Amino acid sequence: MSLLAREVADTWITRWDAQQEGYVPDREERFTAMIDAVEAAVGRPDPLVLDLGCGPGSLAGRLLDRIPGATVVAIDTDPLLMSLGRAVHAGRDGLVFTELDLREPGWAARLRLDRQADAAVSTTALHWISGDELRVTYGELARVLRPGGLFLNGDNMSVDDTAPGLAALDLALRERHRARRFAGGDRPEDWEQWWRAVAADPALAALNTPREETAGHHGSESRHLSAHVAALRAAGFTEAGTLWQNGDNRLLAALLPS
């Protein structure tokens, strides 16, 4: 694996956070709500937390800032994003990056944890997993969480299109909000622009090539709230619902039975 200089990685993660905030302007508020919920739910100062689709570790780092006794296992398949995270968080106690595909059966066992996780979190990541694969992801998660374990998914999840009137209003609100935000035409760097800039940086070439071959972004395969709730209930989570919300930006929480 290619090792990146911390300064290089820090620059790219700063740009990553900025482009993510372009899509989710209240991203930090959602992070805060997620970590509040973890603190309130786990009941111990040293929780074991899984970060699903961790990217460069933006959420994992913030979680450890707040709960320094935690252990966070950060899971993703993207070699470039994980290399950025490893470089920036090199030597940090309590953070382990693990390359696993959450769509594949058996990923939970391959973690080889020494105890069941207290909680799992994810942010702006699981929408790219299709409906059938999402059931695999959540089914595996249920196996590795302790009884009463908490799952939190922060993402843009829309009203189901089986309610067409509400879905149309949901879309209209999002479009009007976006139009107001960018009325002056000053748009931040977006997802595609960020990755094009990465591809042009020679320092990242060795990491970006395998990413283009094996990872990539698959779009919004499961963008409806109902798809996630149904997959969670099928996996054995007995409670699932929105814990925090701003428009279609939601924090979906689910609990396993105690």
UniProtKB/TrEMBL annotation:
Keywords: Methyltransferase, Transferase. GO terms for biological process: methylation. One of its GO terms (molecular function) is methyltransferase activity. Pfam families: Methyltransf_25 (PF13649). The keyword Methyltransferase applies. InterPro entries: Methyltransf_25, SAM-dependent_MTases_sf. Residues 49-149 form the Methyltransferase domain. PANTHER family: METHYLTRANSFERASE. This is Class I SAM-dependent methyltransferase. The lineage of its organism: Bacteria, Bacillati, Actinomycetota, Actinomycetes, Streptosporangiales.
